[in-house]
Prior knowledge:
By secondary structure, the chain is α+β, with helices and mostly antiparallel strands.
Amino acid sequence: xxxxxxxxxxxxxxxxxxxxxxxxxxxxxxxxxxxxxxxxxxxxxxxxxxxxxxxxxxxxxxxxxxxxxxxxxxxxxxxxxxxxxxxxxxxxxxxx
Length: 96
Ligand SMILES: [Zn+2]
């Protein structure tokens, strides 16, 4: 549901989430219950704190400003000391 801004004369600006079919020119303030008219504010494009917005922003940032490394990772390539497979038959397979 979309968020709408309302401005209470006593408490100030507050958000209310309601279906588009139910939003009116005013609503009751959740703090004091007074009549609060709807406020027109700038759209919150790109200010989302949701996970989807963070992922979208991070993806867009890597497209225009990819992280560049100047060398290999410290310690060289990582190799696990643990065998890839514990099945003894795999040791009999030909090796490159
Ligand atoms: Zn109020």
